[in-house]
């Protein structure tokens, strides 16, 4: 924990949808107790416009709207991380670095809404479902009794949240 807040990294394949949503949600619902960032294994050229629209309509903060590579958070001198959550199987399967701060890590499998097929409204609905699933998981996460859990218990709790099927 730095400056009274937990530093959390959400990692996905492209950092254009899921991880950006998770970052925005946690920065809002975490009420200053969490400092969330997001990154990618293989960054997209830009964040999906549907994501930006959904986040703005839901009054979530949208800062630094540019996909980033995870190396920014692993290089020498990077800020220590408290938690790292992979949201895609691609990111979870990568050979990831030893993160600064030896954070608690967990894989929170989450469908990629960018891959949704169908009419525009169906694709938008896929983004909305992912947003809602991340909101549920992150609301559970922020309400964990952090001060009363040891590292192993906290690791188990975040893994259980990740095992939820509606993310």
TrEMBL record:
Concerning SMART domains, the annotation shows: LMWPc
Q: Sorted alphabetically, which keywords does the UniProt record give?
A: Arsenical resistance
Sequence ranges assigned to domain Phosphotyrosine protein phosphatase I in this UniProt record: 6-144
**Pfam families of this UniProt entry?**
LMWPc
GO terms for biological process, alphabetical: response to arsenic-containing substance
Q: Which domain of life is it from?
A: Bacteria
This chain's protein is named: Phosphotyrosine protein phosphatase I domain-containing protein
Organism for this UniProt entry = Ensifer adhaerens
